[in-house]
Amino acid sequence: QVQLVESGGGLVQAGGSLRLSCEVSGRTVSDYAMAWFRQAPGKERDVVAGIRWSGSMTYPQSAKGRFTISKDNAKNTVYLQMNSLRPEDTAVYYCAARGRYSSRWYDHREYEYWGQGTQVTVSS
């Protein structure tokens, strides 16, 4: 059974930075394509970054230049570095894992495993 546990969320002022972590247990992180999603109250769950089996990274346009996804296979952990945070980045951030190929890397329905989420709040 694969488990994902996020950490690193919190309260930060606009312009600040946070690094989220997602520790994978039960399998190795290299077995999956990974992604970070976020969901604000009343809104859909949107992708903010993805990383393929190869380690190549993908981002939606809204996250390019501010968010960086990475993984450490030795620590079985995926990270999301978030810089220049804005109040509109406030959301619950989720780590997700996908064991099968899909061109729809941005679609939360393609992911089989999810963490419990970590709250990120950006104050103005």
Question: What distinguishing features does this structure have?
Answer:
globular, four-stranded antiparallel beta sheet, 124 residues
Radius of gyration of CA atoms, rounded to a whole number? 13 Å
Tell me what portion of residues adopts beta-strand conformation: over 45%
What's the mean pLDDT score? 95
Question: Number of helical runs?
Answer: 0
How would the global form be characterised?
globular
Distance between the termini: 40 Å
- Biggest sheet overview: 7 strands, mixed
The number of distinct β-strands equals 11
Query: Which consecutive residue ranges, at least 5 long each, have pLDDT under 50?
Result: none
Indicate the percent of residues in helices: under 10%
Structural class per helix/strand content?
mainly beta
Question: What is the ordering of alpha helices and beta strands?
Answer: EEEEEEEEEEE
Q: What is the strand and helix layout of this fold?
A:
Layout lengths: L2 E5 L2 E4 L4 E8 L7 E7 L6 E6 L5 E2 L8 E6 L4 E6 L8 E8 L14 E2 L3 E6 L1
Parallel strand pairs: 2-11
Antiparallel strand pairs: 1-3, 3-8, 4-5, 4-9, 5-6, 7-8, 9-10, 9-11
Task: Describe the fold and architecture.
By secondary structure, this protein is mainly β. Helices cover 0% and strands 48% of the residues. The chain is built from no helices and 11 strands. It has strands at 3-7, 10-13, 18-25, 33-39, 46-51, 57-58, 67-72, 77-82, 91-98, 113-114, 118-123. Strands 2, 4, 5, 6, 9, 10 and 11 form a 7-stranded mixed beta sheet that branches. A 4-stranded antiparallel beta sheet has the order 1-3-8-7, with no helix packed on it. A hairpin with a 5-residue loop joins strand 5 and strand 6 (57-58). The N and C termini lie far apart (40 Å). The model has no long low-confidence stretch (mean pLDDT 95).
